[in-house]
Amino acid sequence: MGDSTPNQAKKQLNGITLLCLAFVICNSWAGIAGSLQLALLAGGPATLVYSILVATTGYVAIAASMAELAAVYPSAGGQYHFASILAPERWRRGVSYTCGLLALFSWLVIGVSVTSIAAQQLLALVSTSISDFVPQSWHIFFVYQGFALFAMLYNAFILKRNPWTHNLAFILTIALFFACFILLLVRGNPKESHEFVWNTFLNYTGWPDGVCFLIGLSTSCYMYNGLDGAMHMAEESSNPEIVVPRTMMGAIGIGFTTGFAYAVAQVYAISDIEEVMTTTQWVPFVVMEQGFRSRTIAIVIVSLSIVMAMTIIIATQEASSRLAWSLARDKGLLFSQHLQDLHPHLEVPIWSLLLVWLLTFLCGFLYLASKTGSSVILQQLSFVIPILLVIARKRSTTYLSPARSFRMPNLLGWIANIYAVAFITLMTVILCLPVTIPTDASTMNYTCVVLGFCLLLGMANWWLHAKEQYNGPAIERWEGREAELTGTFTIPSQPKKVNEGSV
């Protein structure tokens, strides 16, 4: 469909562009590079390497479970639309509303985290180049706000007419990965021993070794943050019931390959693990400098990484705004009558984009830079709701059409669904624990505080607006033989007063 109508977006993203966008958001190897200090603290080289394998098994199960649903119900609402369809009638509004807000909050925290890391990268670069410069919190705050504002303006005025931005960002991140990987192999000599890389477990946390390893999974889970980005761009994609599931699985495949390869090469190239664990500098820069055996090369790589981070922030804000837009169309947010509108000339949900930017701006005052666990938990909780509902519905073909484009064999589907729920349950507990014990205000894990704050915001929005206005997504079922052949459901872009979500 070439023309856009009110509240309806143009379908201009092909499969390649959508895959580029999805991987740019996850950017798994860059996620490892930017947050590896936690894994090194909580287990050292062994945790960093093996945790990627463990986390990937969990996220393969999650991605496959969500891809099956996306193949039947492609919409910008993603997991909260799935929850509305699958939930019992009496619980539909509350369950889908909760799932939608969890997804929206997770995307906001992902954006805050990525923007904060980019700000730290820039200031680490400045402090390395200017010996007497010491970064202060207010420096990080203003750089953070500058990045967030630039991403919002780019989304509003440039990105819609230049979707190839994601293709270029993908090329940049893959090129940067190969550059780093080759440089680590060529310049990182002498290499650490195989014993150091594969069998060295360093516990600086105070927790028992098993708990220590599980805490270190945070870094590896972070490399798959934003996995649902493709789902929220479904309504701007051609053939989303085919493209979105493939994109999600493709992002996992590329992410694991690049993330694991980078982590192993980086650990082999470390020259002084004690310096890494005790430095007061930005740890990822110290690790790169050691691996490349050159401060100059590390500066160049970090400079390019800042450009790459900017593309991630842009893509994150884009996906976040589409999710907010979808919730607004379903009357799930305050001021939905404005947030659901597409700008007639810019062809973007400008008010939803401004909402995402405003909340990102306000979160800058809270400075959630290192709270990667918050985004991981919020995203995982938004995934677990529809997966639990699929299990409760016994993977019925009433809800999972046999003709869907992405289909696991039934036994494998059961295993993936149950394993995904078990993995998310475990990580929800682990990621709320403090990284080190004994703990104090400076080392405390504030994930529970973030979750509590999100709960208060969600309850306030419910009582002020959604309780009376939100009816869940309006969904029309394709009846008869046509539905059997396609195995898809249509979700109108314009919300309806009556919920037609029952199946």
Automatic annotation (TrEMBL):
GO terms for cellular component: membrane. The chain crosses the membrane at residues 16-42, 48-73, 94-118, 138-156, 168-186, 206-227, 248-270, 297-316, 348-369, 375-392, 412-437, 443-464. Gene3D superfamilies: Amino acid/polyamine transporter I. It comes from the Eukaryota. It is found in: Membrane. Its main location: membrane. GO terms for molecular function: transmembrane transporter activity. InterPro entries: AA/rel_permease1, Amino_acid_permease_CS. It holds the Pfam family AA_permease_2. Keywords: Membrane, Transmembrane, Transmembrane helix, Transport. It is a multi-pass membrane protein. GO terms for biological process: amino acid transport. The keyword Transmembrane applies. This is Choline transport protein.
